[in-house]
Input
Amino acid sequence: MTWQALCATGLIVVGAGSASVRAQAPASPVVAAGSIAVEPAPPRMPVAGSFSYTLLPDSSDNIDTAIDETVGPMSFIIRPIARGRLRRTNPTPQRVHIDVWQDSLGVAFDDGNPVITPLDGQPVPWVNSLTHETYQAHVVLIADTLRQTIAAPDGTRENAYLFVSGGERLHLRVTVTSHRLPKPLVYMLIFRRTGAA
Output
């Protein structure tokens, strides 16, 4: 059974960053003190379709602040170079569009080139519209999180997508690592769904 089919059946139980398959049908509502409480639905990846999201800036991290914290320990000579590179490759996106197909996933920020990757985890080349460099990208589903990794010669960016509230919200946690940085650049962006095609 594919991961899409498992998600659709509700037979995936998510907790503490891991997933397991229920041995039987989803649990019935919990009865407590004469009232019925229904377990909240766990976050799950959309099965298929096109989804557009808009940034919620007040709920998201400030990327420039995160960059300054990351490059802070570097020498005053190297720090502005690293800051400039990180700012150029990590602009604050206002929109994200996600296409989910049976065997692949496409993600585009603002007007950039979409990153289209097969869902079987195979790496594919992708040209970054900001730097015009070619990187290797792949995607895997781990528990309730879709992890998209983009590898460049000087570092790796992981975009961890978590769909919450029935897909009405998208949480994106970005982690950039490089042997040239004193520590990873990490920030969280929150988006709300604006429509679907």
Summary: Residues 1-39 have pLDDT under 50 and may be disordered. Residues 79-89 form the longest helix (11 residues). The chain has three helices and 14 strands. The domain at 49-196 is CATH 2.40.128.20 (Lipocalin).
